[in-house]
Amino acid sequence: MLFRSAYRDLIQQTKDQYQALVDAGYTFTFFDSETDPYDGNPFNAMRDLRNNKRMAVYGTYDGYGTEGITGAEIENNPLLEDTGLRWKDQNGVKHMVTANDLFRAVHDAFGHGLEGAGFRSRGEENAWQAHARLFTGPAIGALTSETRGQNKIGRAHV
After folding, report:
1. DSSP readout, 61-85?
2. 8 Å CB contact between 134 and 140
3. CA angle 58-5-103, nearest 5°?
4. pLDDT tens by residue, 1-38
5. Which pLDDT does position 118 carry in this prediction?
6. Is the separation of the CB atoms in 28 and 55 below 8 Å?
7. Which of 16, 86, 88, 110 gets the most CB atoms within 10 Å of its CB?
8. What is the pTM of this model?
């Protein structure tokens, strides 16, 4: 259960960091494989974040693994839980924000955005170093697992 408590801690601290972003005037939306406003360039997302205080995040609803999200995965993966938030996609349709979506947004804002870190191996490591300073306790282990795991398997990050 150490795994679950670390992820619960990560999710709670991510929610707190998200609230700090919202309180500072930042907004978030989704994009999917058909509606990428950044033309596949994550640096365009960082420009949008810095210049306009907004960012579109690639939605878990559109891409998660090879089979999509199954009921068993929702039950066994805390990052697939519903945060209670809803963001609009690029067509104005609201979608559930999973903890994974929220983590992606917050990590990109604080990890990549703070230091201007890129999205390849070295940039991901730099983003981890920047973002890890904003976490305490067991959440740091879950943060490490998520950021390094996504980097190793090449998942879309923005």
Report:
1. TT-STTT---HHHHHH-GGGSEEEE
2. no
3. 15
4. 567 889 999 999 999 999 999 999 999 999 999 999 99
5. 66
6. yes
7. 110
8. 0.83
Buried b (16+ CB within 10 A) or exposed e, 34-57: eebebeeebebbbeebeeeeebbb
Q: What are the CA-CA distances from residue 84 to residues 38, 80, 102, 111, 137 (Å)? A: 26, 12, 11, 24, 25
For the segment 74-119, what is each residue's pLDDT rounded down to a tens digit? 677 888 999 999 999 999 999 999 999 999 999 989 888 766 666 7
Question: What type of residue is 141?
Answer: G
The answer, yes or no, to whether residue 134 has pLDDT greater than 80, is yes
How far apart CA 16 and CA 22 sit, in angstroms, is 10
Confirm if 104 and 125 have CB atoms less than 8 A apart.
Answer: no
Q: Which of 55, 64, 63, 65 is nearest to 30 (CA)?
A: 55
Specify which residues 20 forms β-bridges with: none
96 by DSSP, 3-state: which? strand
Tens digits of residue pLDDT in 115-127: 666 676 676 777 7
From residue 85, alpha-carbon distances to 6, 58, 81, 111 in Å are: 22, 15, 11, 22
Instruction: Quote the pLDDT of residue 76.
Output: 74
